[in-house]
Design goal:
This protein has 91 residues and is of the alpha+beta class. It contains three helices and four strands. A hairpin with a 5-residue loop joins β2 and β3. The longest helix is centred in the first third of the chain and has 16 residues.
Length: 91
């Protein structure tokens, strides 16, 4: 099983969209169970969310992409960009 870090950047002025879909997004993440290593928002200078960081164990990148396509934030086109990188936990 591989581990991936996903770095997402919100589109400008999308805080309302993020908050409106937050509960569904969290429920979707919970379906990963123990394969979810870490999840949380990045914050702007005012302390408001402006992106997301996820670290997920997945069989492969294609399975991860399928999971992400079903995420409410992705379906609602919240993100300006999504970067997926291989990740190796050292500590």
């Amino acid at each position: 099983m591989k581990t991936f870090i996903i770095i997402c950047e919100d589109k400008k002025n999308s805080l309302k969209k993020r908050l409106a879909n937050r509960e569904h997004h969290l429920a979707h993440l919970k379906t990963l169970k123990k394969n979810l290593v870490l999840a949380g928002p990045t914050l702007n200078r005012d302390g408001n969310p402006n992106g997301s960081i996820l670290i997920i164990n997945s069989i492969n990148k294609e399975e991860l992409k399928k999971f992400l396509k079903k995420d409410p934030y992705v379906r609602e086109k919240l993100f300006k960009s999504i970067l997926i990188k291989n990740f190796k936990k050292v500590f």
